[in-house]
Each structure stands twice: as C-alpha cells, then as structure tokens.
Specification:
Layout: H1 2-17, H2 24-51, H3 65-92, H4 95-127, H5 135-156, H6 160-187, H7 216-261
Helix pairs in contact: 1-7, 2-7, 3-4, 3-6, 3-7, 4-5, 4-6, 4-7, 5-6
Length: 262
C-alpha cells in the first residue's frame, strides 16, 4: 500500500511539475519557420554559387563573403538577444530570460566560428596567408574568446541566481566587442580587411574591397544571404531555448523527487 502511495505521489509531482507547455500556434509557427529556413537555404546557396556574378579581381573566392559576412550578421543578432535576455533578467529576476541569454550565446558562438573559418579561407588566396596581425582579425578572435569565456564563467558558478546575474552583466558588456569588430574597418586606416557593405571612412582603398552596388546580383545575393543567416539564428535560438526549458524542468522535477525521498 505504501508503494502504491509513493508511486501515486511521484505521478502527482510529475503532473504538477509539467509546466513546459506551449500554445499550439507557437509550435506551429516554429515548425513553419524551420521548414522555410531549411528550404530557403538552397535558394541562398544557389544565388551565392551561381546567380551572383564573379568578382573581376577576387574571382570565385569572393563568393565566400556571402557566408562570411552573413554569418557574422547572424551571430551579432544572437549576441544582441543575449543582451536583451541579460537585461531582462536583471530587471525581473525571471530565470526564463537567463535561459534565453545562454541559448543565444550557444547559437551565436558557432555562427561566429563559421565567420572566422570562412574569413581565413578567403584570406589564403587573396592575402596569401591564412592569418595576419590585422586589427580586424585579432579583434574578431578576441570577441570569440570573450563569448567562449561566457560559457566557461557559467560553468564555474554553482549558485543559479549568482550565475545568472554574473552572466547577465558579462553578456551585456561583451557586446561591445561585437560593435568594435564592426567598426574597425570603417574607422581605422591600418587594416587590410575590406568593407563589404558601405564605404570606409578612413581607408576607402582597403585591399580586397568590393562594393555590392556595382552589380545588382551581388547586392541581391548579399541581402538574401544576410536575411537567411539572421533568420536561421532566430530559429536555432528558439529550438535551443526549448531544450533549455526542458532541461530546467527536468532539474526541478529531480529536485522535487529527491526532496520527497528525503
């Protein structure tokens, strides 16, 4: 009889803790966006590989920019969502915002890794080196390390509230590195990094530069690519957040079960 009662209590605890539920329309919206993102990926790749014209100076190596620049845009969106999540947590102390912040970093960091790898791949045929001591490249590497350290910081703090507070402040401050990386080729004259979109204020003849407005197909392809990577970032964050919510629910369920056993 006691065993039956224990099982009944466990089931009741499970039912009471099952708070990871979403409106049907929201799940359908996520599914629809996921399908659109997957299918439009092929459109983006087709435009980047075949539709856009070949750059007269850089040749086919320039096509890497449709991934390189756009993955940076997607990563920046993810890191900005981390700022929103961190600020909202500091104001409300609601753990859902902390879960949003960490989910965004875990999506943004791989996107920035794609940016680093494709940039280095582009540099090899254009600059004849995989890496050089360029302010933009070094700043990009530092930014990547800053956000990798964000995840390390979270793993080093056991208290949930203290971890969330520290991570929120860190995530807000860390976004300054994203802005700095964006501004470097536009305001410094000691960088070789091209300004793909818009002119450079101090170094309009930066090596490797091309202007998307010189060819409507190049501009259209860059626009589609940036839209796709930003949409992909949002969809991935949404999926990652649901996993984080499920993990938090399981942790709460485990804690309740252990407390009843004690």
């Amino acid at each position: 009889m006691a065993t039956i009662q224990a099982v009944s209590d466990s089931r009741s605890a499970f039912a009471e803790s099952a708070d990871v539920a979403y409106p049907v329309w929201r799940t359908r919206l996520l599914f629809g966006l996921s399908v659109v993102t997957f299918l439009s990926m092929f459109v983006m790749l087709y435009m980047a590989l075949f539709y856009a014209g070949t750059d007269a100076v850089q040749g086919h190596a320039q096509r890497l920019f449709y991934v390189h620049v756009s993955s940076y845009a997607g990563g920046s969106v993810a890191f900005f969502i981390t700022v929103i999540g961190g600020a909202a947590y500091l104001i409300t102390r609601n753990a859902k915002w902390d879960r949003l912040a960490v989910s965004s970093v875990e999506v943004g960091l791989p996107l920035m890794t794609v940016c680093l790898v494709t940039g280095s791949t582009w540099a090899r045929p254009i600059w004849n080196t995989w890496w050089t001591a360029d302010p933009r490249l070094n700043a990009m590497a530092v930014m990547w390390l800053i956000y990798a350290a964000y995840l390390t910081l979270r793993g080093a703090i056991e208290d949930p509230d203290r971890r969330a507070r520290f991570a929120a402040v860190y995530g807000i401050i860390a976004f300054a590195s994203v802005i700095y990386v964006f501004l470097i080729p536009r305001v410094r004259d000691d960088t070789l990094h091209p300004v793909v979109i818009g002119p450079s204020v101090t170094n309009p003849s930066a090596q490797g530069e091309f202007e998307v407005r010189t060819d409507p197909r190049i501009g259209a392809t860059m626009g589609v690519a940036m839209t796709w990577w930003c949409l992909a970032a949002v969809v991935l964050i949404w999926h990652r957040l649901r996993l984080e919510n499920k993990a938090a629910w399981l942790q709460a369920l485990k804690a309740r079960w252990l407390s009843k056993q004690g």
